[in-house]
Fold this protein.
Amino acid sequence: MNFYNRNIYADLSKHLSQKQITVLTGMRRTGKTTLVKQLMHDSGISQQYYFDLERMDNRSLFSEPNYETIIYALTQRGANFKEKVLIAIDEIQLVPNLPSVLKYLYDTYTIKFIVTGSSAYYMKNMFSESLAGRKKLFEIYPLSFGELLSFNGIVSPARPPEEQGRFVQSEYERFKNYYETYISYGGFPEVVLATAIADKKDMIQDIISSYINFNIALLSDIRNPANLYKLIKLLAVRIGTKLDVSKLTSLTGISRPTVENYLDLLEQSYLIRTIPVLSSSPDREITKARKVYFLDNGIAAASAEAGSGPLFENAVFNQLLHHGEIAYYQLKTGKEIDFILNKEICYEVKETATEADLKNLKSISGNLGLNQGHVIGRHPAKLFEGYIWGGFIQDPLYATVQNS
């Protein structure tokens, strides 16, 4: 099996030696299973067992009310629990009682568990209650642009933050077509590896269908999936805009509480992400509307006829996502700052940026007392100090992890 380099793999590999359960969560088909198999390949533990809970026989095994029956069944398959055993389990949310099973086996035997799941709500809440202190959560997202380059065999030397604004024509020519592909088709691994555009489009539609019919149907009691898809399409044409729940309620014909529940479900299951307004008052941050983005550009583009500018802004959001906390800022006049990273650096996103855009950004950021600002562009028609071409935004050197 061929393995591709993922930024998060170094942290996953390091956690292999820990007793804690290694938990991978994220939307289906982001590469969790491939990462699990890569970890098994590299683990050095000779006794290994892999279970996909989409298979009914595996689901039945881990649904046994007597947990020792599971141990007995594995012993019949040759496992020796007097020595270390590695057990990998995919899609653990399919067995509701699995956290209790894992807790018992973790506390009783020398087992290294690697498990995956597709619901942030389940993994962070229900899963946390019974496994507090026994697990570490790693969130797996679609490929970053840097990972997309790597999957295509393109070497991209690390560029320190202070050099990301340095425009290198030869590097731009080398990366630009890949960056346009990233903006249009996103970062699901199978989509990135597909060479034909028609295949990429078909795969994205299949991912959307699978997400609605499998993930969402499993995690919630949705009687009309068509309503949820209608909401997703409306969100796709509102990328980078403030969420207006009343408007969404009116357009969908769905009740306000249901729309709010759907929005929470879409965020908890890794389809969208909302960001707050930056304010010195926490109360004001709560009352001001959040802006919405999709966690994969391919899904955003396929869900509706989103404009070229919003799709580019969505790609930049995904590039900045893993560098820290993202917020936006808006004046009463309507002027705004697209992204503020870690309450320190301001970014304005323009497909064709000008020095006037940078001047406006600095003028608005002055209200926040921030003096670091850049304009991120897609088409480098004119270069100036403070300009960053989107394809030169580097991946962070750390992964998104949570201890619990």
Q: What stands out?
A: The chain has two domains: 9-139, 148-396. Confidence is low (pLDDT under 50) at residues 398-404. The first strand starts at residue 21 and ends at 25. DSSP finds 17 helices and 13 strands in the chain.
